[in-house]
Amino acid sequence: MKRVLIISYYWPPAGGSGVQRWVKFCKYLPAQGWQPVVYTPENPEMQSVDHTLEADIPAEAEIVKRPITEIYSIYRKLTGKSASQAQVNMVNSQEKSWKQRLVMKLRGRFFVPDPRVSWVKPSVKFLKEYLKEHPVDAIVSTGPPHSMHLIAQGVAKATGLPWVADFRDPWTKIFYFKHLELSARTVRKHQRLEQSVLDDATAVVAVSPLVQEEFRQMTKTPVELITNGFDPDDFSFEKEEIEDGCFNIVHTGQFAADGNPERLWEALADKSREDARFREMLRIRLAGKTDSQIIDSVKAAGLEKNLVNLGYIDHETVVREQAGAAILMLPLRKEPEYRATLPGKLFEYLGARRPILGIGQTDGAMARVVADAGAGTTAAWEDKAAMKTFIDSAWEAFLKGEQFYKSSNIEKYSRRETTKAMAALLDKITQL
Asked: What are the phi and psi torsion angles at 297 (to 5°)?
C-alpha cells in the first residue's frame, strides 16, 4: 500500500467541516490503496469538540502530532475568551470592539499568512527527519490555515516528493481577506506566498468550480475539482428515529451575523400570523454555533417561541437534525466573494435528501449544485416572495405527508466517490 503524508491543522477531536473533509478521505483511502499518514498539532485551538468523528479514523491511519504555539493565547488574555467562546467569525464587516480590532491588526500585520505560521519551520525540520525513517509516496496539504501549504512546500522541496495543495477555501480571494486590515506590503506578501504555492505544487485541488477557474487563471499547475461530500454511512438510521411531527426549518453548522436571512424571518412571521396551525407546528432549529445577532433577529420577528437553539452538537446528531427537516436553510454570507463558495454543509444537506432553501447569489456555485441536484431553490437575499412561495409549497407537502423535493444526481458527491477522485490524483502524480 502506498503512503500519503497529509498535513492538516484540523483533526479530531476538533469538530467542524474543516475536520470532516480529510477524516472522510482518510476513512476511504485505504480501500483505494493509500495509507494516510496525518501530521497535525498536538495542542490546537478548537472552537468545538466532537469525539464522534474519531470513529471515522481508520485503523490503517498513522497519526503524528507535534506541539504548536499560537496567537490565540494572546487573544484569550486580551478578551478573557477562549476560541470556543468567540463569535462565529470575527473577520468580517461587523462592528468590532477595540480589543477585537487590536487582535485583527496583530494577526494581519505580524502573522502571515495566518496565526499558525510559527509552526512552519519546526514542522519542516521535523518532517524531513521523520520521513527518512517513515517514507511516503506523496504529500497533501489542506488549508486554510494556509501555513499548512508552506509546511508541505518546504518538505516537498527538501525531499522531491510530489505534492497536492488542497484548498478548502481560497486564499487572497476569500471573502474576509479584505477585512484583515492589511497594509499594502502585507497584501503583496500574501499574494507572493499564494503564487508560490500554486506554482510549486505538483497539483492543486479546489472544492468549487468557480475557485478552480480562478486558480487556473493564476498558474500553469494542474488544478483539479474535488468537492466536499456526504457520507452515506452517516444517514443509515430509520426514518422513525428522526420524525417529531413538527414543521422543522433547520440550519446546521456555523451561523454568522453577516449571513442573517432577515427576509426569511419576516416570511415565517407573516405565515405564522396568517395560519395558526403553521404557527403551532413551526420550529426553527439551529444546530451549531450561532451569533447572537441571529437569535436577536429571530426574536424581533416574533418567532421566539418557535426557536430551538441547540448550540453546538456532535456530527452524529447533526445529520439526524438534517434528515428530520421539512426545510434545510442555507444562507450564504453577504459578501460578493461568497458567490464562488460551496459550503460543506450543502453536500450533507443533499445526503439528507430534504428540501434545500438556499439564500444568496442565484448565479453562484451553491445555486448551481442545488439546481443540478433538483434539491430545492436559491432565493436572492431580498427576495421574500420567493422564500414565501417555497415555504408555502413545503408546508402543503408536509401536511399531505409528501416529499416536496427529492434530490437526484448526488452520488457523485458521496465521500466514497470523492475519495476515488483524490486517490486517482495521487496515483497520477506519483507516476509522473
From this structure: -70, -40
Check: CB of residue 333 under 8 Å from CB of residue 215.
no
Cα–Cα distances in angstroms (integers) from residue 302 to residues 250, 277, 279, 283, in the given order? 18, 16, 11, 13
Asked if 66 contacts 42 with a C-beta cutoff of 8 angstroms, the reply is yes
Q: How far apart are CA 312 and CA 361, in angstroms?
A: 27
pLDDT digit string, tens, across residues 320-330 = 999 999 999 99
| pLDDT given for residue 104 in this prediction | 61
Please give the grid coordinates belonging to residue 275: 395560519
On whether the CB atoms of residues 146 and 172 are closer than 8 A, the answer is no
Predicted confidence at residue 85, as pLDDT, reads: 45
Give the pLDDT confidence score for residue 97 in this predicted structure. 64
**Residue 290 DSSP label:** B
Prior bond of 13 cis (ω within 30°): yes
- Rounded Cα distance, 18 and 308, in Å: 25
Ramachandran angles phi, psi of 14, nearest 5° = -65, 145
Long-range pairs for 421-425: beta carbons < 8 A, 24 or more residues apart? 421/224, 421/226, 422/25, 422/29, 422/205, 422/226, 423/29, 423/32, 423/33, 423/34, 425/164, 425/203, 425/205, 425/224, 425/226
- Dihedral of alpha carbons 348, 353, 358, 364, sign: positive
What does the DSSP 8-state code read for residue 330?
E
Give yes or no for residue 298 having a pLDDT over 50.
Answer: yes
Quote the pLDDT of residue 91: 54
- Where are the strands (E) in 280-338, listed by range? 282-287, 307-311, 327-331
Q: For the chain, what is the mean pLDDT?
A: 91
